[in-house]
Every structure is written in structure tokens, then in C-alpha cells.
Amino acid sequence: MDANGQQKAQEALDAEIKSFFDSAPPLRNIEDISKDLRNFVEMNSPQAGTESARKVVCVTSGGTTVPLEQRCVRYIDNFSSGHRGAASTEYFLKAGYSVIFLYRKGTCQPYCNLLPEDPFLECFEFTEESGIQVRQPYSEAVKKAISEHHAAIADGRLLKLPFTTIFDYLQMLHMVAISLRSIGPHALFYLAAAVSDFYVPWESMAEHKIQSGLGPLDMRLVQVPKMLSGLRSEWAPTAYCISFKLETDVKILLEKANAALKKYKMHMVIANELLTRKEEVTLVTGNEKIHVRRDPELVGDEVEKHIVKHIVEKHSAYVDNSDHKVSRA
Ligand code: 9Z3
């Protein structure tokens, strides 16, 4: 495509993004989110007298929904348990990062992987003599969940922001990106959320529950504008950006990851296949492909530990290189 064609394509994308945001239902708790983000960024910014900002990663996690009715009864969902995002959050915190955990309500939470499915009912017991107590088999798991999670929040190193719909998610991602601009290359985006590709624009969506009995349902879904380009070039142009590519056909996986890397100018794309995603992934950058596997012989070894280790190295090199460029400018 020549320069003129590129400019036209960019203008068309900008118009689609603008129309998505203009027509999206506004976030209900926008004031609280803004305040939490402001406080979090301030706590993680360089204080007078100290040399540098903490590294901050925005981890997105879980799938976005696409409502079919404004007073939503039905919706389309994207698969993601949130395990990748929750586990990665723990490893980033361990590596000294502060984390904004942008997650789908109801999906996996950091430090909770050892808890049973219904922790409230299964982990506790009540007797008249001793009141509420943790049941013995869960005492370590509950201690870990409560102590590590609460410490990260209290120290201002973990901020958790829940979303449900594609409208919430993209508006919140935009807010996070704008807030992290002030820390420049110290910001990292780790986009593990499974994001809808198609949606029903708010203004063309039925207000009330769609009635059955009228025969087959015809519904037009339009493409969600590719916000990765916006994130990379405008929202957070100095941050290190990593997206994920999920496929079910392993034969096209690396090719698609490479295409995403180039198209959206990501610094890294992590390629994973649905069935093996907990065992292995490939980290694709402009000049290498790093295959990462968990060690099945090692109890508790998780692929996220290896992913985060590589990312920490790459991001450090990126920050050093950016400092160098800034100081020479
Ligand atoms: C992923 O590929 C994640 O690794 C998984 C993690 C969702 C597979 P779980 O949450 O699974 O641990 O159960 N996320 C990105 C999926 C996605 O929507 N990618 C888009 C695409 O492939 C690009 S943004 O086109």
C-alpha cells in the first residue's frame, strides 16, 4: 500500500474507533476508576529524590462479552478462564512489577489458584464455641491468598479493575493507557484477555429482550475496530506492548502471530494453541521465536513463570535502551 493508501486506511480506522467510543454506553463508575488509577500511578511514579519509576504492567485477563440487548438478557462470550492473567500477575509481582489487573468479573484471581471452586462455603466452618474458622486442609491456601493478595494491594502494587462487556473493557484499557503515559517505557501491556472481534453497536441494539417465536433471528455483528494499533501508536506510544494470538489450528498459529506482530507493531506476540496453552507457547518478536514449555516433571511448574521471566529481560533491555535514547536526545 502506498503512503496515500496507508493514510486513508488510518483515517478510516480512526473514524471507526471514534464511533465505537462515541456510541459505547458510558462506564458507570468512571469517577472511581479515574481516582484509583490516579492514586496508583502516583504511588508508582518516581518520588523526589529517588531515581526511577517502578515498572508497571497492565495485565488483561478473561473474555469480553457482547450484549445482544441493551437491557441485557443474552450475550456472546469469548472463552478465557483468566488463569493465564491471574498466574502471570503473581509472577510479575514477584519480579518487582506493580500490576493493574484488568479482569473479567468472575474469572480467576491472583493467589487463588489453590482455593476450591466455592472457597467461601468450602474453606470455612462455624461452631458455637470457636466461631468461624478455616478448615484444616485449606489453611495454607487461605493464608497465601489473603496475606499475599492483601499485602500487594496495601503496598499499592496491585490494582484490580473488573470489566464485563467489550464496551467496558476497551474504555478501561484506554483509561489505563492514558494514565500510564507518564511512566513512558516503564509501562508494559500484557494483553491476555480474549477480546471479541464482533459486536452489536449500541445504537442498533434492541432495547428489550429479543422475542422468540418470530422465526430465525437475523442479527448483524460489525467488526470491533482493531484497538491494538491505537494502543501502540497513540494511547501508549512509549510502552512495551505484548498481545496474545490464540488459534485452534496449530498449522496457522505462528504465521498469524507474525502477521499480528507486524500489523499492530507489537513488541511481542505470544502464540498459543487452545488445547496446549497451559503447557507451551511461543514468544514471537521481530528477530526471534522463543519456544517456552513448562516442565511436567516439576510439581507446580507453570508456563507463565517462564513467559514472565523472558518478558522481564526483554522489557529491561527496552527500558535501558529508551533511557539511553532519551539521555542522548
Ligand atoms: C490468549 O490467547 C490467552 O493466552 C488465553 C488464556 C485466553 C488462551 P485462560 O484465560 O486462556 O488461561 O483460560 N488471549 C488472547 C486471545 C485473543 O483474543 N487474541 C486475539 C486474537 O487471537 C488478539 S487480541 O486474534
From TrEMBL:
It comes from the Eukaryota. Coiled coil: none annotated. SUPFAM superfamilies: CoaB-like. Residues 55-102, 175-307 form the DNA/pantothenate metabolism flavoprotein C-terminal domain. InterPro entries: CoaB-like_sf (IPR035929), DNA/pantothenate-metab_flavo_C (IPR007085). Belongs to the PPC synthetase family. This is DNA/pantothenate metabolism flavoprotein C-terminal domain-containing protein. The lineage of its organism: Eukaryota, Viridiplantae, Streptophyta, Embryophyta, Tracheophyta.
